[in-house]
TrEMBL record, chain A:
GO terms for biological process: rRNA processing; tRNA 5'-leader removal. It is found in: Cytoplasmic granule; Nucleus, Nucleolus. The keyword Nucleus applies. This is Ribonuclease P protein subunit p20. GO terms for molecular function: nucleic acid binding; ribonuclease P activity. Belongs to the histone-like Alba family. It comes from Acipenser ruthenus (Sterlet sturgeon). The keyword tRNA processing applies.
Automatic annotation (TrEMBL), chain B:
Its main location: nucleus. This is Ribonuclease P protein subunit p25-like protein. Keywords: Nucleus. Residues 1-28, 169-195 are annotated as: Disordered. InterPro entries: Alba-like_dom_sf, Alba-like_NAB, DNA/RNA-bd_Alba-like.
């Protein structure tokens, strides 16, 4: 962790000869067993199946699907497909938020100082739950 | 969302695209409500310039942002920016599929050119209502202004754990784990729920 470095508030173009960009992982969010964090690396169908299993398992009344940045669309797709397969019994409650991300710029030269800059990304959190049969 | 590279559309060129118009999924909206239709190529600066100028007026109480496919993330970003600039806004978020109709024309130069292709696509889409006045918190997708945790309240977190312990699952109630670094709140459960 380049904690000794300077923090840049504004974006600026980085010179690839001067710095290598390393993205820090986003801050660890709380993870209950019914929280699913969607990513772009794992196969879509596998993530969908995992959500399906959590819902059908009967252990939870609801699951929460989280998506950050590019994974927002995938999270929405999974939620809508679960609802489509759910025979009309599932409801969706989406919330949005902003997540702060930090990039570490590592100097290529010996003289350079490590620098970090922060940027914001959007995130979505979708609760999927059974509608109460009335 | 598919790229055109592997979807069999390599020999075609898109010549038209229409979106199916559908009414906004919010109850009791004024007919002249400001709707910001976010597209993939929209510039956030331009969108926010217009949206902020409308919301700054006292008489404009609500605004809607909508987008589909590749514009969804940008739509959310606009909403997040507006919430930061204008405090105290109530939010309702709705998700649904948007139906698209695309017409593709054959790229082949030689005759016969082949027929045009009409593609129906269902893309995920999002509609977000921001309101200066309170909205019905029972609505699915409601989000109160300036909620710090953003995900769930401490009470909800506790209720989740308590209902699991009632079903006989042996789990420590809200024990913080320093290794994972996750933020957990310590809440005392009422006596009748403790084993």
């Amino acid at each position: 962790m380049a904690d000794g470095g300077v923090t840049l508030a504004q974006h600026r173009e980085i010179d690839p000869a001067e710095f290598t960009l390393r993205k820090r992982l986003p801050r660890k969010l709380p993870q209950r067993r019914n929280d699913v964090y969607v990513n772009m690396k794992t196969d879509f169908r596998a993530q969908l199946a995992r959500c399906q299993r959590l819902l059908e398992g009967g252990e939870f009344n609801e699951i929460c699907i989280h998506g950050l940045g590019l994974a927002i669309n995938r999270a929405i797709n999974i939620a809508l497909q679960l609802q489509g397969n759910g025979l009309g019994a599932l409801r969706l409650a989406p919330n949005t938020s902003t997540v702060e991300l930090v990039d570490d710029l590592e100097p290529e030269t010996d003289q350079g100082e490590p620098v970090s800059r922060t940027r914001n990304n959007s995130a979505i959190h979708i609760k999927v739950f059974r509608a109460d049969p009335q | 969302m598919q790229s055109t590279r592997n979807s069999g559309l390599e020999k075609f060129k898109k010549i038209g695209k229409t979106e199916e118009e559908s009414p906004l999924p919010f109850p009791e909206l004024p007919p002249d409500v400001v709707e910001m239709k976010v597209k993939e190529g929209s510039k956030i600066r331009n969108l926010m310039g217009f949206a902020m100028s409308r919301m700054e007026g006292e008489s404009t109480r609500q605004i809607v942002f909508s987008g589909s496919g590749r514009a969804v993330t940008k739509t959310i970003t606009c909403v997040e920016i507006m919430k930061r600039k204008v405090g105290g806004l109530h939010q309702v978020t709705k998700l649904r599929y948007q139906s698209l109709r695309e017409v593709w024309e054959s790229r082949e130069q030689r005759e016969p050119k082949g027929e045009n292709l009409t593609v129906h696509r269902n893309v995920p889409s999002i509609c977000i209502l921001l309101s200066k006045d309170p909205l019905d918190p029972q609505q699915h997708g409601y989000q109160p202004p300036e909620s710090l945790t953003g995900l769930w309240t401490p009470e909800e977190d506790f209720i989740e754990e308590a209902s699991l312990s009632l079903r006989g699952a042996k789990r420590p109630l809200l024990s913080p784990s320093p290794e994972s670094g996750s933020k957990r709140l310590s809440v005392e459960p009422p006596q009748h729920l403790v084993d």
